[in-house]
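Handout, page 2. Input:
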Amino acid sequence: MNGIKSCKRCLFDDTVKNITFDEEGICNFCRVLEKMRNKYKKADIEKLFSRIKRRMKHKTYDCIVPLSGGIDSTYVLYYVKKAGLRPIAVHTDNGWVAEIAKQNMKKAVEKLDVPFVRLTKDWELLKDIYLAFLKASVPELCTVCEVKSISELMEFAVNKNIPYLIFGFSPETDGLAPIHWHYIDSRYYDSIVNRFSQKKEDAKRLNKAHFRDIFFFSVKKGIRHIQLPRFMEWDESEIKKILKNELHWIDGGHHSDCDYYSFMKYVVKKKFNIDKHKTFLSAQINSGKLTREEALRIFKESSSHDIESKIENVLARLGISRKEFQEILEKKPRYFTDYPTYYPIIKKLKPLCWLGCRTRFFTHGLYEYMFETGV
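Output:
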C-alpha cells in the first residue's frame, strides 16, 4: 500500500529509518529481539532473590520497586512481596500522574502492606523542561520524566543503601524502539536545556545521568537495575487477571498511568509519523503473545481514540495557546543527531558498552539498542 514495505512479522515498515529486511521479509528489529531471547536465557529467579535476601538481611528493605500504578510496576511490587522480599515502593512524580494510577498505587501498597515514598519536583521547573523539548522539535518529549526518574531513584537507592532496583520493563517484552524514535543521554538532555530552557541551571541539576554519575552509582555504589521480565514468563493477560483479583487494579489501557502520554503520542505521530505503540505491540508479536492480526486490530483501535480534550488539558497546564502549539507542530522536525550528544563517544566505546551490559553495570538491552538497530 502506497509503496510501503512492511515486516512480515511485526508492525514496523520502511518508514523507519535504517530498517532492513532479510530474505524472509523479517526486519532487523525482529531479528535483534529474537537473538536477545536466545542469547539471554531466563535466569534463576529463586537464586537471584535468595542472594538479595542474604545480602540485605540486616537492612530494613531488600529492594526498591519504582511504582507508577501501571500494569508492569504494580505486578513487580505484587510479585516480589509474594516472593518474600521486603520492598519499598517509590513513585517519581512526573507532574502528569493520572487519577487511575493514583488509585491503583494506593490500593496496591495498602493491600500488600508496603511502605510508599513519593518523590516530587517543583512543577514550574518540570513544565519549563517539557516546554524546552517541545520547542527543540524532537520526538523525545518524555525525556524530562525519564531523566528525573532515573536520577531520583539512583540517589534514593544510595541514600537509603538499597542497591537493588527492580523494574517491570525489558526489551523482550516492551520492544526496542528505533533509535531515531527515542534516544536519550545526559549530554543530549543538557544541550536541549541550554538552548531552550528558561531555568537552565535548575534543570541541569535535575540530571544525574552523566558518565561520572553512572560510574558512581553503578561501580562505586553497586546499584543494580533488575528487569524482572528477564527472569520469568511475562504474560500481560494473565498478569491483569491476577492484579484485578488480588489488588482490585483498574485497567485503563496502555500507558493510562500518565496524562501526558496521549499528548506525546499525538505530537510525534503528527510531526514525525512515529507511533510508539508499534514498538510494544511488535514485541508482543515477537514473544508469541499476539498474532500480527491481533496486534493490528489493537493498533487500529488505539489510533482511533479522540484525544482533543486531553490535548487541551495538556496545553492549559503547560500554559501555551493553540496557536503556539500549532507553530511548534509546524517547526522542522529535528532528531538527536542535530544536537550535541554522547553518541559519538559511545560508538567509540562499543567494547566497554558490551562488557558493561554483560556484567549488568548497564541496563539490559542497551548494547543491542545502541549498536544493532542501526542509525
